C-alpha cells in the first residue's frame, strides 16, 4: 500500500476500498479493526451470556424434575393420608357401634340383675326366718380355697353392685376350684334350691339357707345342687359343688350373707378377708 501511495496509485486503492483518499482508507481500516474488536467482544459477551443461560436452563430443568418428583411424593403422601383418615373414620364408626352394643348389653345385664334380685326378694318374702339365730360363727364355704376374685360392693366403675364375694382359683395343692364341695356356712333350713336355671342369667344353680334370726347365706353359680327346699342342714354339710352356671365367666362360688333379706358385706362375719 505504501508502494501504491508512492506511485500515486491512490485511486486504485480508493476503488478497491471505496475510499476517497488514503486518509479515508486508513480511517476506514482502523474503524474496521475497531468494529471487529467490538464485535468480537460482543460475540464473546453473548457467548458468555448464552453459556450462562444454558447453565441456568439446565439448573431450572433439574429443579423442575426435582419439583415434579416432590409433587409426586407429596401426592402419594396425600393419598396415603386420605386413606388413613378414611380408616380412622371407619374405626370410629365401629367403635361407636361397639359402644352402643356394650351399653345395650350393660342395660340388659342390669335388668337381669334386677330380675335376679327380685327373685331373691320374693323368696325372702315367702319364707319367714326360722326362730332365733343360734349358729355362732360361720365357717368358710369352700374348704382350702381362700382366693377372692371380687369383693362386696360397687365394681366395674360403679355400674354394678356386687352383693357378695366371689371365691375362686386353686388350693395350695394346685387343684382348681371347679366341682369342689360347697359347705353350709352354718346350720339351717334350705329355703331355695334349684337345679334349673337360665344359661348366662343371674346366679344359675343356687341355694339359700336360712339360719334363723333373719340370717341367711346364698351360694351361687353351682355346678350341682345336692339339697332341696325344706331340707335342714348342719354346719359343714355339703350342699353342692362349685361351678360356673348363670352369669359367670369361670368356676367360682358367689357367696352372700343376708340379714333380714338384705345383703351385707361378708367381711362383717369373716374379718380376715
Ligand atoms: Zn359374685
CATH architecture of the domain at 127-268: Distorted Sandwich
Low-confidence segments, given as residue ranges, are none
Q: What's the shape?
A: rod-shaped
Query: How large is the radius of gyration?
Result: 53 Å
Report the CATH superfamily of the domain at 127-268: Glucose Permease (Domain IIA)
Bound compounds, each kind once, are: zinc ion
- Strand portion: 15-25%
CATH class division of the domain at 127-268: Mainly Beta
| Overall SS class | alpha+beta
Tell me the span between the first and last alpha carbons. 135 Å
Could you describe the largest sheet, including whether it forms a barrel?
10 strands, antiparallel
Number of E-state strands: 12
CATH topology of the domain at 127-268: Glucose Permease (Domain IIA)
N-to-C SSE string, H for helix and E for strand: HHHEEEEEEEEEEEE
Mean pLDDT, all residues: 89
Keywords: Coiled coil, Signal
Domain M23ase beta-sheet core: 161-266
Protein name: Peptidoglycan DD-metalloendopeptidase family protein
Coiled coil: 43-126
Please give a structural write-up.
- The structure is a single chain.
- This protein is an alpha+beta fold and 273 residues long.
- It has a domain at 127-268: Glucose Permease (Domain IIA) (Distorted Sandwich), CATH 2.70.70.10.
- 43% of the residues lie in helices and 22% in strands.
- The chain has three helices and twelve strands.
- The strands form two sheets. Strands 1, 4, 5, 6, 7, 8, 9, 10, 11 and 12 form a ten-stranded antiparallel sheet that branches. It has a two-stranded antiparallel sheet with strand order 2-3.
- A hairpin with a 2-residue loop joins strand 7 (205-212) and strand 8.
- The longest helix has 105 residues, at 22-126.
- The radius of gyration is 53 Å and the shape is rod-shaped.
- The mean pLDDT is 89.
- Zinc ion (ZN) is lined by residues 150, 162, 164, 166, 254.
- Residues 150, 162, 164, 166, 254 line the site of zinc ion.
- GO terms for molecular function: metalloendopeptidase activity.
- Residues 43-126 form a coiled coil.
- This is Peptidoglycan DD-metalloendopeptidase family protein.
Amino acid at each position: 500500500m505504501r508502494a501504491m501511495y508512492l506511485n500515486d496509485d491512490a485511486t486504485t486503492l480508493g476503488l478497491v476500498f471505496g475510499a476517497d483518499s488514503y486518509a479515508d482508507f486508513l480511517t476506514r481500516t482502523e474503524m474496521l479493526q475497531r468494529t471487529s474488536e467490538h464485535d468480537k467482544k460482543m460475540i464473546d459477551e453473548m457467548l458468555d451470556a448464552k453459556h450462562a443461560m444454558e447453565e441456568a436452563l439446565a439448573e431450572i430443568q433439574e429443579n423442575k424434575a426435582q419439583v415434579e418428583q416432590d409433587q409426586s411424593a407429596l401426592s402419594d403422601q396425600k393419598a396415603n393420608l386420605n386413606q388413613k383418615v378414611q380408616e380412622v373414620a371407619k374405626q370410629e364408626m365401629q367403635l361407636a357401634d361397639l359402644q352402643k352394643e356394650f351399653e345395650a348389653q350393660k342395660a340388659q345385664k342390669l335388668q337381669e340383675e334386677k330380675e335376679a334380685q327380685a327373685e331373691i326378694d320374693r323368696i325372702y318374702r315367702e319364707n319367714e326366718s326360722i326362730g332365733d339365730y343360734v349358729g355362732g360363727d360361720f365357717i368358710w364355704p369352700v374348704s382350702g380355697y381362700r382366693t377372692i376374685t371380687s369383693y362386696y360392693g360397687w365394681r366395674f366403675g360403679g355400674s354394678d353392685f356386687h352383693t357378695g364375694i366371689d371365691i375362686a382359683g386353686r388350693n395350695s395343692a394346685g387343684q382348681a376350684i371347679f366341682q369342689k364341695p360347697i359347705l353350709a356356712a352354718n346350720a339351717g333350713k334350705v329355703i331355695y334350691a334349684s337345679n334349673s336355671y337360665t344359661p348366662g342369667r343371674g346366679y344359675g344353680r343356687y341355694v339359700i339357707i336360712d339360719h334363723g334370726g333373719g340370717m341367711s347365706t346364698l351360694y351361687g353359680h353351682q355346678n350341682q345342687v345336692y339339697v332341696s327346699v325344706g331340707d335342714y342342714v348342719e354346719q359343714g354339710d355339703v350342699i353342692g359343688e362349685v361351678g360356673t352356671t348363670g352369669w359367670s365367666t369361670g368356676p367360682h362360688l358367689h357367696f352372700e350373707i343376708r340379714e333380714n333379706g338384705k345383703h351385707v358385706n361378708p367381711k362383717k362375719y369373716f374379718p380376715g378377708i
